[in-house]
Amino acid sequence: MFKPHYSYLCANFSVMNALPTDENFLAITDAKYYSYENSKVVIQSLPYEYTSSYLSGSAKGPGAIINASQFVELYDEELDQETYLKTGIATLPPVDFKNKVDLDAVTLIEQETEKLLQDDKFVVSLGAEHTVTFGIVRAFARKYSDLTILQLDAHSDLRHSYHDNLYSHASVMARINEIGLTICQAGIRAQCIEEAALIKNSKNIHTFYAHQIRTNPLWIPELVDRLGNNVYITIDADGFDPSIMPAVGTAEPNGLFWNETLDLLRKVCAERNVVGFDIVECAPMEGSTLSEYTLAKLAYRILGYVFKG
């Protein structure tokens, strides 16, 4: 059911029946700002879930985030702007995987993302499991040189394979590492010993563990210094602390909090060319919308940082 934006209802409750029936990110009601042709930004939904290893349900994450976004205010008080007026935001139908899994699913994601990049869109992807990021990054890596991946996550996702699957969500960054891209990780606090060894012996992987950033006031500038000019950001919802992000498949204590995450993202967007981002691994919980609402607001805030001024 369509949920009109709260601020829109305040001024236009008498004409709510005239709103479009298809839901879009932020419940934008003017086609000038949500049509594909007029929008710089597109929201791509990738409800692919095949290798979840603990709690399942992330396939519902993209839709839940979009639904929750209906209640995010269009005016951003920090940035003093209504970002969507600068960019337009088109919300695309969810990608239909037609039972494709593993490499076939990754290839489909790559193809769909490449089409959007060819149309010069700024692509925001809402994924189910983290595997989707590999397909997205393969498309971005062909368009942008000196591409660096900024990963916010509880897990390093650097296992060569997991449950004998090279395309597991637990191996997505291993596949990206094989492309030869620089990876900067923040908030990591759960990994196997093989992943730790890979990080120690790699010149391309820079990991800022959760326990380290708690005692290092300079961790944000140190991380940003490791990034190349073109940055793609992948955000696993479990990178946040469970106290503010409970609806995830594999929660871990001592996660990132809202303000420190925004401090990092604000600086990255100000000092580097952020070319796109994804948010993955939200597994909605019955009776709570805290996680999906927070992630919807996060997506809109990142867009504000990218298109500020």
Could you characterize the architecture of this molecule?
The chain has 309 residues and is α/β, with parallel strands linked by helices. The protein has a single domain, classed as Arginase, Chain A (3-Layer(aba) Sandwich). The longest helix is centred in the middle third of the chain and has 17 residues. The N terminus is likely disordered.
Number of domains: 1
Distance between the termini: 35 Å
Number of helices: 12
Helical content band: 25-40%
CATH superfamily membership: Ureohydrolase domain
Strand order across the biggest sheet? 2-1-3-8-7-4-5-6
Average pLDDT for all residues? 91
Give the DSSP E fraction (strand runs of 2 or more residues): 15-25%
| Biggest sheet features | 8 strands, parallel
Radius of gyration: 18 Å
Briefly note the structural class of the backbone. Answer: alpha/beta
Report the CATH topology name. Arginase, Chain A
Order of helices and strands: HHEHHEHEHEHEHEHHEHEH
Name of the level-1 CATH class: Alpha Beta
The appropriate CATH architecture is 3-Layer(aba) Sandwich
Based on Cα principal axes, name the global outline. Answer: globular
Low-confidence stretches: 1-21
Strand tally is 8
